[in-house]
């Protein structure tokens, strides 16, 4: 190329008449442009195109991965919602069962308490009746003794114990069956 440039300068020196188109220089410039374009294409555009293609491939792969991740996230969210709703249903069922069990336990406790209270009431009534009968028997015995003592003073004579008891018992029987008497 240097030779061509030197030869071109010698021809230029002789042709200095003005604006003219030198076909030799047009061909040299075109050849330089084509050689420069081939070199740039080979060492510049091809690596840049390859880098851009690799970058486009990575971007496409990243978009595909992002789309897959979005689908997996949606599936995971749906699974999460399903698991949460199942857990809520199970919790509600357990709560209902616990409430039912508590109500049944409460009802059985109330029934057992009522039965115990009834038994205690019946037992207390029986004890009261027994104690009343004892008190009446004791009272009758004392009244009989007092009546015998009073009768002995009034009559002035002493009666035998067996006769006194027989008379008191007859008196109490007669009093118990008399029309105005109160039965205890």
Short description:
With 184 residues, the protein is an all-alpha fold. The chain has helices at residues 2-14, 23-155, 161-177. It has one domain (26-176).
Verbal overview:
The protein has 184 residues and is mainly α. Helices cover 89% and strands 0% of the residues. It has three helices and no strands. It has helices spanning 2-14, 23-155, 161-177. The radius of gyration is 66 Å and the shape is rod-shaped. The N and C termini lie far apart (155 Å). The model has no long low-confidence stretch (mean pLDDT 83).
Features:
mainly alpha, 184 residues
Number of strands: 0
Please provide the ordered H/E string of secondary-structure elements: HHH
Which regions have little confidence, pLDDT < 50, spanning 5+ residues?
none
The helix content, as a percent range, equals over 70%
Instruction: Specify the biggest β-sheet.
Output: none
Please describe the topology of this protein.
Blueprint: H1 2-14, H2 23-155, H3 161-177
Helix pairs in contact: 2-3
């Amino acid at each position: 190329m240097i030779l061509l440039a030197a030869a071109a300068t010698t021809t230029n020196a002789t042709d200095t008449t003005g604006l003219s188109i030198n076909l030799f220089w047009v061909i040299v410039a075109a050849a330089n442009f084509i050689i420069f374009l081939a070199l740039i294409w080979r060492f510049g555009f091809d690596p840049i195109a390859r880098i851009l293609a690799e970058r486009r491939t990575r971007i496409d792969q990243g978009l595909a991965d992002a789309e897959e991740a979005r689908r997996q996230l949606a599936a995971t969210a749906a699974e999460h919602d399903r698991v949460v709703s199942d857990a809520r249903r199970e919790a509600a069922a357990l709560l209902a069962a616990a409430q039912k069990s508590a109500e049944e336990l409460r009802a059985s406790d109330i029934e057992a308490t009522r039965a115990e209270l009834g038994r205690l009431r019946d037992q207390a009534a029986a004890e009261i009746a027994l104690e009343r009968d004892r008190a009446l028997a004791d009272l009758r015995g004392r009244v009989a003794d007092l009546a015998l003592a009073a009768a002995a003073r009034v009559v002035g004579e002493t009666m035998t114990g067996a006769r006194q008891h027989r008379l008191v018992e007859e008196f109490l029987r007669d009093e118990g069956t008399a029309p105005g008497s109160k039965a205890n």
